[in-house]
Write a structure and sequence with these properties.
By secondary structure, this protein is an alpha+beta fold. The chain has a single domain, classed as 4-Layer Sandwich (Glutamine Phosphoribosylpyrophosphate, subunit 1, domain 1), CATH 3.60.20.40. The chain contains eight helices and eleven strands.
Length: 356
C-alpha cells in the first residue's frame, strides 16, 4: 500500500509512493524500556521514557513544582508556578530529548533534585519570565541559581490525532495506553481490505537544522531513529500500589494536560472528575500561553497581572485542549473511571459493577 498508494481517480492530491518494504516491517522491534520515575508529594509518578518526551518533561516539571507550596486557597499562584515550570521543562525538552538509542539523553540529570532546584530558582513568585527561556545545564554541577543563557529552540509541530485509554481489572492491575497516527487521518491512506489508516509520524521529527553556533537538535531525522513524541501514559503509585492512571491525546499539549490534571488532583485537592473537567492552559516555552475560554474567564486577568500573555487555544479542535481519560483506586476493589464530560463531545468511562 505504501509503495502503490490507492488514489481516487478524481482526486487532485499529489500522492507520492513511499519507500517502506516488507523487510522494514520484519525488522521492526518493540523495545521494552525502563519507565521514567519521580517522587512527588509522597507518591511515585511513572511515565513513558524517550523517544517520548512525555515522562521526562512531566517528571522535570513535577520536580520543579515540588520546590513550591501549592495551595487550593490560592489557585492563581499555583497556576503561575505550573506555567513557569512547564516553560522551563519544555526548554529542556527541546534541547535534550530525542531517541535515546541515537542521541545522548541526560535523563537521570534532567530528573534529578539538584537540577530541579536550579531551574526552580529562576521562577519569580510574582512575575512570569519572558518566553522562550533557555534550556538549563543538566551536568551534575548545580548552583543555587544560574542566569538564563541565549539558546532557544522553537516548538515543533506535533499532530493531535492520538487516542488514550486506561483500564484496571479486579486484581488491581492497571494499564495506561496511548497510540497515535499523528495528523488528521494520519497519512490519509487506508490499507485496502484491512480497514486501518497508515500514520505519518515522521512529521514528529524536527526538520529545521540548528542555526550556526546553536546546540545540535536531538530530534533531527536519521536512519532507524524514532521521532520524539509527547505521549504521556502515566501511572501514580501510593505506598507501592496503583493510585492513579491517566493520559490524553493532544499533540504537544499532552504533557501540560497530564501535568495540570496531576496538580489539580494532588496539590489543589480536586476529586478526579473535577481535576479532568477544570479549564486548561498550556505553556510550552512560547511567548503566549494558550488557554481554553473558561480558563481565561476565571484566571486570565490575575495571571496577566503577573506577566503572562494569554490567548484562546487555536486548536484543532478550536478552543479545546486535550481529551483525557483517567481512573483512581479509591480503595481496594473500588475504582473510579473518569472521562471528559464536555470536551470533544464527551468521552467514555465505564465500570463493570457500578457503585455509589
Amino acid at each position: 500500500t505504501v509503495a502503490e498508494p490507492p488514489v481516487d481517480p478524481g482526486a487532485a492530491r499529489d500522492v507520492r509512493p513511499g519507500l517502506m518494504e516488507r523487510a522494514d516491517l520484519a525488522a521492526y522491534r518493540a523495545v521494552v524500556r525502563k519507565p521514567t520515575h519521580v517522587p512527588y508529594r509522597g507518591m511515585d509518578v511513572y511515565g513513558m521514557p524517550p523517544s517520548s518526551s512525555g515522562g521526562a518533561t512531566i517528571g522535570e516539571a513535577l520536580d520543579i513544582l515540588g520546590n513550591f507550596r501549592l495551595d487550593a486557597r490560592d489557585p492563581v499562584t499555583a497556576l503561575h508556578y505550573y506555567l513557569e515550570a512547564s516553560k522551563l521543562a519544555y526548554a529542556d525538552r527541546g534541547r535534550y530529548l530525542g531517541d535515546a538509542d541515537k542521541v545522548r539523553v541526560p535523563l537521570d540529570e534532567l530528573l534529578s533534585a539538584g537540577f530541579a532546584r536550579e531551574r526552580a530558582c529562576l521562577i519569580k513568585p510574582d512575575r512570569a519570565a519572558p518566553a522562550p527561556v533557555a534550556p538549563g545545564s543538566p551536568d551534575g554541577r548545580y548552583e543555587p541559581c544560574v542566569p538564563p543563557g541565549t539558546q532557544t529552540r522553537a516548538l515543533a509541530f506535533e499532530g493531535p490525532q492520538t487516542t488514550h485509554l486506561v483500564v484496571a481489572d479486579k486484581w488491581g492491575n492497571v494499564a495506561s495506553y496511548t497510540v497515535s497516527i499523528e495528523q488528521f487521518g494520519g497519512s490519509g491512506i487506508t490499507v485496502p481490505g484491512r480497514g486501518f489508516l497508515l500514520n505519518n509520524e515522521l512529521t514528529d521529527f524536527s526538520f529545521q537544522p540548528p542555526a550556526p553556533g546553536q546546540a545540535p537538535d536531538p530530534n533531527l531525522p536519521g536512519p532507524h531513529k524514532r521521532p520524539r513524541s509527547s505521549m504521556s501514559p502515566t501511572l501514580v503509585l501510593e505506598d507501592g500500589r496503583p493510585k492513579l492512571a491517566l493520559g490524553t491525546p493532544g499533540g504537544s499539549t499532552i504533557i501540560t494536560t497530564v501535568l495540570q490534571i496531576l496538580m489539580n488532583r494532588i496539590d489543589l485537592g480536586m476529586d478526579l472528575p473535577a481535576a479532568l473537567n477544570a479549564p486548561r492552559a498550556t505553556q510550552r516555552n512560547t511567548p503566549l500561553v494558550y488557554a481554553e475560554q473558561p480558563f481565561l474567564d476565571r484566571y486570565g486577568r490575575d495571571l496577566a497581572a503577573r506577566g503572562h500573555r494569554l490567548e484562546v487555544f487555536p486548536g484543532p479542535p478550536a478552543g479545546v485542549i486535550g481529551a483525557a481519560t483517567a481512573l483512581e483506586f479509591l480503595r481496594p476493589g473500588l475504582v473510579q473511571a473518569v472521562a471528559e464530560p464536555v470536551r470533544r463531545g464527551g468521552g467514555s468511562a465505564l465500570v463493570v459493577h457500578p457503585a455509589r
